[in-house]
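Subject: Predicted fold for Cupin domain-containing protein, 131 residues

User T.R. writes:
Posting the sequence so we have a shared reference for the thread.
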Amino acid sequence: MSTHLPPGVEVISTLPGTAFGVPAGAEARTIEITIPPGDPGAPPHRHPGPIFGYMIEGEILFELEGQAPRVIKAGEALYEPGGDVIHLQGANNRTDVEARFVVTMFAEPGTPILTVVSAEELAERAHLRVS
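User M.O. replies:
I've generated the structure tokens; pasting them so everyone works from the same file.
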């Protein structure tokens, strides 16, 4: 990566190419998500491929299977591997402002943006949750 960037350009986050797997024949989908104040966000779910995102405003309580919950604030980046990993939480962590972020997802054309996980599967995989 070049260290000479034009004025107004800032690299927020980088990952090595081996850190994620983009499905063969994938398309890139850029999606904006807005979560109302205090909203718990989507129920536990999976994405069909990796996601790279950036918090525009507010903050979310973000939890992936196998990772401790963490707060992601405006100006910070996020990553999800997609595939088998369950996205457990993506709640608006504030009750006074909306949370807004944009993600780019790499997925095979025609796949859903997310698939909700059943209560039975969550129970079977409870041992993978970090407290």
